[in-house]
Amino acid sequence: MKLANFLIATAIATLFPGALTADSSSYLICASCHGKDGLGMKLNSKWLAPSLHTSKYVTGDQAELLTALILKGIAKDDARYSQPMMPLEAILSDAQIAEIVRYTTQEFGGQLRDVSADDVATWREQYQDQALPWHRSELAAKLSPEILSELHFTLYPADQAGGDIKSSDQPLRSGGIASNLLSAKPLANLDRPAVVVYEGLLNLTQADDYEFRLSAGPGSVLKIDNETLGRLETNGGSSSLRVRKGFEPGSYRFELQFVASAETPSPELTLRTRKTRKSFTLHETATP
Ligand code: HEC
After folding, report:
1. Distance in angstroms (rounded) separating the CA atoms of residues 68 and 127
2. Predicted TM-score (pTM) above 0.90
3. 6 and which of 69, 213, 241, 284 could share a cystine (Cβ 3.0–4.6 Å)?
4. d(CA 260, CA 40)
5. Which of 48, 85, 96 to mutate to test the pocket of ligand 1 (most atoms within 8 A of CB)?
6. What b/e sequence results for 98-116 when a residue is b if at least 16 CB atoms lie within 10 Å of its CB, and e otherwise?
């Protein structure tokens, strides 16, 4: 049997991305230093500003920090740059900043962050006592961890596709997978069904009710901190499940196992929170 290559994508998505717009006009002020294409600009030997495509404040789930950085600017600590990033709080409205956050995260970060003018107003008030621009080290210390980090996989031989999960102690293959849109091919060049186990850390920054939705082949199991949160029946039955559980802030051991074969659908896991309206998806797409 020929097993397809798989693409793993983790993405932090907003619940209703279709309802939002991201207009470019307010971004023009940023473009004067970061360039229209967001790739940064160089003048003689010094940079006017770095690329936004590789910035964690833009690619990550960091709308609040990105807003705070736009409001206060960044001090000139780094000799690579010809000037600081100036504070823009006095000249940009809440609506303009919200537009900029949506535009930059969609265009350069690959994932639109749902930020409203009201969100910006709240953050503007929250940071109002900060008179000086940020230092890089202060910003870096505030970066919250990614929802899923240190993700890696291990492949075990499966005796029967779609049957019980039978893991041997001898993995066929294992490897690391960085989180955020990254392709991995754990199943490439394998000619028999395998059990794939993904393990990593689930980093939850706030107490909330979290809803896990898993759709995958029979026998798939989702575990958090070694406790089985959900399991799809091994014989027929439903191919999806929904579990809701309250978690305190912290890092939890995440494990998802499933049997990979031509007959089983690609697994898809979505994590939603009630308060924050965020959702997170881990899915595999078979590519020919
Ligand atoms: C006057 C030029 C200038 C303007 C205008 C400007 N920036 Fe910057 N920006 C910089 C410089 C310089 C840095 C790098 C500062 C450092 O790292 O020391 C920077 C850094 C950043 C970073 C952090 C990048 C990283 O290292 O991860 C982000 C995000 C960012 N800017 C977004 C914006 C946005 C959005 C706008 C428009 C609202 C904007 N900037 C306007 C000069 C500018």
Report:
1. 7
2. no
3. 284
4. 42
5. 85
6. bbbbbbbbbbbbebbbbbe
Give dist(CA 67, CA 128) in Å, integer: 12
Model confidence over 109-118: pLDDT tens digits?
Answer: 988 898 999 9
Look at the block and give the residue holding tokens 């983790």. Answer: 10
Residues 59 and 109: beta-carbon distance below 8 Å: yes
Give the three-class secondary structure for 78: coil
Amino acid at 18: G
Nearest to 153 by CA among 131, 127, 132, 179: 179
Q: What is the dihedral of CA 57, 62, 64, 70, to 10 degrees?
A: 10
Tally of CB atoms within 10 A around 209: 12
Domain spanning 2-142: which superfamily? Cytochrome c-like domain (1.10.760.10)
CATH assignment of 148-281, among 2.60.120.260, 3.40.50.2300, 2.10.25.10, 1.25.40.10 = 2.60.120.260
**Within 13 Å of residue 77, how many CA atoms lie on the same side as its CB?**
10
- Among 23, 24, 30, the mutation site with the greatest number of ligand 1 atoms within 8 A of its Cβ is 30
226 HSE (CA, 13 A, CB side): 0
pLDDT tens for residues 132-167? 999 988 888 787 566 777 778 787 877 654 455 666
Minimum CA distance residue for ligand 1 atom 38: 30
